[in-house]
Amino acid sequence: MKKTHFSHHKKTIxxxxxxVLALGFxxxxxxxxxxxxxxxxxxxxxxxxxxxxxxxxxVTITGLSVIPIGQTLTGxxxxxxxxxxxxxxxxxxxxxxxxxxxxxxxxGLKEQLMVQNSLGQTSLSKATIIAKNVFxxxxxxxxxxxxxxxxxxxxxxxxxxxxxxxxxxxxxxxxNAGFALSPHGLIDFHQNLAICLTISGLYITGGLGFLxxxxxxxxxxxxxxxxxxxxxxxxxxxxxxxxFILIWLLEAHNPKTLGLMSLQDQALNAWIHATVPxxxxxxxxxxxxxxxxxxxxxxxxxxxxxxxxxxxxxxKIGTFIVLVFSVISFLRRNDEIxxxxxxxxxxxxxxxxxxxxxxCMLIFFGLFGILLLEPKQPIIDLIFEVVxxxxxxxxxxxxxxxxxTYSLIxxxxxxxxxxxxxxxxxxxIATPKKSRVKHPVTDIxxx
Length: 447
What we know:
By secondary structure, the protein is mostly helical. It is built from 18 helices and two strands.
């Protein structure tokens, strides 16, 4: 008897890794929006645009909010919010990698490309190790933060309330989300040294980058650290200390911010506001009452952001370092870009330039759009909100909840694009083309 074989042709959708990442984050935003709209997820009435904006802000770990979280979301709603923050912070790809590895250690070529693209690694073995460590480090620091904050808050609240606060702020801080249960941010705790420094330690650690955390654990010696780790740690220290000194000096006589505080409280709050622009979004002062000079410094720090492969946003510290040394090398007429007696490939410099330019364009077009939509709002407030959204920081001049629906949609697009990252956004739009044809060189005047 002759057997008949039937072949079934299934249609497959071929998506590039950037497209998978983009659709993945978008799907979590949509799911989060629907969950937050459930009647038992919020008190009173929550509009679709408010739910959508909140879900986007959580998944992109930005922290901008149009609603008072603690007063609007129920316990269930806050769990949904924290879940979205955790997904956005760890990256849905990390979850996918861990799940795939638990089922099968052999990933297909497309899955390998997605893992390598999302984690910024060319080696699959290294990418999977990083994915596991991202999960382990995140859980470790969040549990550590929860324990410390529970002990601290138990002195003024019941154990249940202290634990509730501790879990929420630990997850929000380490993931650099910046969501707070109080509509005033951390202003209620601006005199509590232990709480402020614990939360500061969490968002600084989360903003360092998991590669650096892995390097610190493995090498345990400054001399043995990689050049990347040394540069990022030194640069972050310089930026934090410079911001700390400048903000303290600029705000020390401002009665609306630091002016009426004791010397210790001034130092504490100046430190917080020098480090939060890394991307954490917490505030212990009224940002809108800061001087224009302090606001400009804050915008600059927000633009730089934190370390690569971290929960922070911005162009990233590594990008900033490469740009600075590229300029130094050009001014010195060096034939290569040198950092710590090492040469940086020109391809890396091109990448840093692309990241910076795309981010600047994103901010420019976002600002242009919101200026058209909000002609009555002060331009400094709109600039601040746009940079905060595009660099996924979450600090606000207090005008977010005053914006119209179209402006909020524009900010959600900026947050989404900022979380995807400039290069992922470029790869998503552009079609890569390679040519073996070498073209003649031409001279274009620059400068």
